[in-house]
Amino acid sequence: MFKHDYKQILFERKGRVLRVTLNRPEKLNAVGGELHHDLSCLFQDLASDAQSDVIVLTGAGNAFSAGGDLDYLSACHEDPARFARSVREAKQIINGLLDCDKPIICRMNGDAVGLGATIALFCDIIIAADTARIGDPHVKVGLVAGDGGAVIWPQLIGYVRAKQYLMTGDLITAQDACGMGLINFAVPPAELEAKVEEWTERLTRGATLAIRSTKSTINIGLKQLASAILDAGLVAETLSGQTDDHREAIAAFRERRAPRFQGR
Question: Model's pTM, two decimal places?
Fold first, then answer.
């Protein structure tokens, strides 16, 4: 079906709708090496899939995605070749999302954190369970929010609020995120599937070519921003991964204590 052999992503077809499920539920769909590589190939494959017009992106289990797996992050920062590969893949994920002209509905069944939040926010319609939270806590582990958060958050909620949430890493309830325009809908968990189906039916009944071209036209500005910001953001995140603060954050997480940042 696809060029890539996916290890941690599941696919299910229903007519012209393709459901794509991040499948690492035991880790809250945190993005480790295999899933990161899967995601770097995913959106190009989705764009080329002749059997679908609308994509639904969701997570298995209780979360959409808990963001970057800390063991994977640590391994990347200790291995320059692995980290360089992860940076290339990060660009492929964001560019793939922006280049895919099919409408992507994010079915945010649970928390979307870090890279999980970035992927959710680059989707086209974001429908969340009202019990879910969203946020980009890179700074809480001593990292720059360089893998797309600095691109998309200001465009959705403005620079003042984006700085508030990206500089603190605070999580936002789905209801508050909806109220400020970060996501489209927040519904009770029991109503999530019906709301997603409402939107898949609406989009599949629409003028497919016009919808795709409209999305592509809107994304021109985002692609220009991503081109200008993403490289610098990823370099900054790479450098922040070499700091004492990041190493302290990883150690604190493993020791289940609050980190003691020193600003170096």
Answer: 0.95
